[in-house]
Amino acid sequence: MKVTFLIPPVLDGTADVDRCFGCNYCIYFLPLLPILYAATLLKGEVGAVSIIDFPANKKTGNDFKKFIESDDSQVYVFYTVYLCQKTDLIARNMLRQKRRNAYFIFSGPQASYSPEVFLDREDTFAVRGEPEFIIRELVRAWESKSDLSGIKGVSFRRGGKIVHNAYPDFIADIDLIPIPDRTMLDHKPYFNPKLHRIPHTAALTSRGCFGKCWFCVPNSLSYARELEHKKHCGKKPPPRLHSVERVIKEFTNIAALGFKSVSIIDDEFLWDEKRTCEICAGIKDLRLEWSCLARPDMVSERGVEAMARAGCAYVDMGTESFSREILADIKKDMRPEDTRRAVQLLKKYKIEVELNILFGASPKETEETIKYTIREAKRLDVDYVLFSITNPFPGTDFYCAAKKEGWMFYGDYIPVDSAKNAIISYPHLSKRKLEQLCSYAYLSYYLNPRYIIKQLLAIKDLKDLANKFSTFLTFLQKNFLKRC
Hints:
- By secondary structure, the chain is α/β, with parallel strands linked by helices.
- It has two domains: 163 residues, Response regulator (Rossmann fold); 299 residues, tm_1862 like domain (pyruvate-formate lyase- activating enzyme), CATH 3.80.30.
- The protein is 38% helix and 16% strand.
- α1 runs parallel beside α5.
């Protein structure tokens, strides 16, 4: 049996989607770890396993048509987030015309949230929750012609009816998941413009987050896990962490393969100071440049010092707002002072800082609170700020509130780019005003001559310059040249 994991090109007229996080459109590409985990588990069990990432390799719809004509896979696996649902369904339908006896698997957060959308025929299967072991079980069942009823977490159509198999327990010990075989994927297209060294890859050291933020869409693997658990238990599943030993082993493997930099895409990397310091001690001699995401209130001086010694280049922090009232209302459970203190510590140890800021996450947001947050971000003079308009993603508490209170401009969620388009529209803070304020935030921060000079001075080599320039052009195109 031949299994192909597919990331098709854009087929619905929108834009390339960031499937790693699932809530925005791409400026640059990272390897999609959920499919790499699943492909690694299948390797050696079937005749052939491949991963094809059309967008990262700048392949078009015409390239996809040529692929369909020449490919002979029996199983095609998609990893679908909301923003790429339409494209993936179009791709599936195109493949059907040529591969009439193939099976199609949809996994990821959208298959977990609404599996019925994909199940129009008996050739398609939706995998809910964490997909890796479930996909392997499904393929094994097809190869052995076994019954599917005992495979938890699978939905499918039989006899004109949709069948939802039992709820899949989340993976209690994620160390059971093998280290992804990164040789299965050509990493040349992947980079992070905030890291200077290539070749580049991504890594996960945990799943889930302890935070209660009502708007939050975690990385797409954590979100698929969370959506399925919420359906059956009414709450988020507990986080699961790789052991320190497993993390060190994976990073040692990454270095041995010749990678020079790593994006750690955990929802929260700084779980506790002891774990952070032990991981850093274990990887500091690997000479890897890396980044991570963290809550400001989890940043400690001892942890930051260990991270700096181990090669951490920048930390992406979820700040959201500098208003105490708004932070409390969105259940962030931290204070503006936490961000200010964390930024000072990171700067002290020469680790670059990115702040994630959200506009409109609370009905208590006003034009004044947004402008205050922009001023505070400028005052901290960090290396990067990601300004976004909070969109109520299905499955979040914010979505439920927005639906109930009538805050959604279109009546429900629709796919938009949160860096420039709003779905939320409050009586005192309209959709248009939120979009104008987000545009103003980007213009005033990134087109500041002092900021531009600072970034130019930080360039390491010609490849770094090319990556940053490409990213900057994409950023301009997304946020200003085609604003709507």
